[in-house]
User: Which sequence fits this backbone?
């Protein structure tokens, strides 16, 4: 069972697509959000959850104070699940609180990035494990112009996958392995002229 861990929607169960997704474990999500909260990244953040699956990462950010989230998945079934999960999470917002913006886009991530003008503070990328490294490199390249100056980019991959090929403009900050999953944290690189 996938659930929201904390925030206004804490303990709320989320629907997961029947096939084709690999939900991030509670243990890994707890580690991700503990690190993000310690960096004060979430409050008021604009978040993109790319290859969203159930939308659990983006919706966890929303529950913990993000101002907006866009959940992107090309699979129509996953996008439908994301829409239902958005409705569940936004229904849990306490009366009198501002309703954050939550959008669901049923489109491939490369196409979405080509057409987007949004700027994000936090981006989750959790592509399918069989997603080619060259395709991931193209996504990272398209993502760079869409990042706020202090943006955090978090990539979740199979631990057997190589380190992502970082696009010009992105720099590895750290990586951490959790069993079969490795998290890669990146940020915009600072030119040293």
Assistant:
């Amino acid at each position: 069972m996938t659930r929201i861990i904390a925030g206004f929607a804490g303990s709320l169960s989320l629907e997961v697509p029947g096939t084709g997704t690999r939900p991030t474990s509670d243990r890994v999500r707890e580690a991700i959000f503990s690190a993000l909260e310690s960096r004060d990244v979430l409050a008021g953040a604009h978040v993109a959850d790319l290859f969203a699956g159930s939308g659990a990462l983006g919706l966890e950010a929303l529950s913990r104070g993000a101002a907006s989230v866009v959940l992107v998945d090309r699979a129509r079934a996953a996008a439908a699940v994301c829409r239902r999960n958005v409705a569940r999470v936004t229904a849990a917002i306490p009366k009198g609180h501002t309703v954050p913006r939550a959008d669901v886009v049923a489109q491939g991530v490369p196409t979405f990035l080509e057409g987007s003008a949004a700027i994000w503070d936090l981006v989750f990328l959790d592509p399918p494990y069989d997603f080619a490294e060259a395709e991931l490199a193209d996504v990272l390249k398209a993502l760079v112009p869409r990042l706020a100056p202090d943006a955090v980019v978090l990539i979740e991959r199979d631990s057997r996958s190589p380190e992502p090929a970082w696009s010009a403009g992105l720099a590895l900050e750290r990586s951490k392995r959790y069993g079969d999953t490795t998290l890669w944290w990146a940020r915009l690189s600072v030119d040293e002229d």
Notes: The beta strands are 2-3, 13-14, 46-50, 68-72, 101-105, 120-125, 147-158, 170-178, 181-188. The chain has one domain: 2-188. The chain has five helices and nine strands.
